[in-house]
Amino acid sequence: MTGADADVVVAGAGPNGLMLACELALAGCRPVVLDRAPGPDPEPKANGLVGQVVTVLERRGLVARLTGDDRPVPPVPGYTFAGMPLELVRLADNPLRVVPVGQPRIAAVLADRAAELGAEIRWGHELVDVRHGADGVAVEVDGPDGRYRIDAGYLVGADGGRSTVRRICGIAFPGVSQDRSTTRIGAVRVRPEQLEPASGGLVVPGFGTLAPFAGVRTDRGGVTWAPLPGRDPLLTAVEWDRPPSATTMSLDELRASVARVLGADVAFEAPDGAGPHALRRIEGGNNRHAERFRDGRVLLLGDAAHVDTAGGQGLNLGMQDAVNLGWKLARSCAATPAAISWTATTPNAGPPPAGCCCTRAR
Questions:
Q1: Helix %, strand %, coil % for the chain, to 5?
Q2: What is the pTM of this model?
């Protein structure tokens, strides 16, 4: 859009919005990222990257930044999905790779990279309205110095499951919500003698051993023990038909929930250090899908477009959304075709063509 303040405005500076900003800036576009929060969210939510997104980020040189290791990520021998252990080591060509890095670290690396590439990130700036026509959008923003307007070619709502962008555009979000379950997650510290030496499983007297990442189910719910490498382990308890709690989430609440599910007490304490340490309660869940992902020059991305509480795949799917959308938007913004024609979303796509944005030094 000639004369616009930005090629693309991105609402939401989480990992999805920041990934899109990186892709757009890498292809020569001018993205502006808005977020109403005063700065990055320090809360440890997602615990890492799984699957195809790892391949995509390797091609962007971002996995090395996340891990400090520039070697290719090896496939994992096994994985648990929907409570079922998968022995991937039996596959001749195991495709599944995992990067266990917390969401705050992912967002910080993406923000640094986006800024390097020329994207502008405006913390404390909240999108409040948008008007769009055939050739662009006018975005109204409340910032620290008052309300102002940005003219841009496109707006992308990467602003989560309660998306303001989706609401303003009147896009329905049909699906299913349930309020029967309560999930409690906490980072914990246990004594070395509580761990099974060979597997790293958590030994629970009166119950047995919680195998790493496998999860167990009882008639009362489920418990998962996740000893994340290089980080505090996570203990998760899910219960059904528990009344909502009005109190602040605590380790005592997690301890009681685990005991109800397993029928046995688990000893643990708060992790060492100042944190922030993961400690969350999630009431209910949602499985919803926007009736459309586009309204003229406005598009939806990540949780703004689809939420699924099963499997913890929101971050991985959203970042792949960002890469897929990025090259398409860049092409529409009249960036150099050679720099944007290779999507990098298919692991077996082979090397990018000469001049591709993956290989250009910027």
A1: 25, 30, 45
A2: 0.81
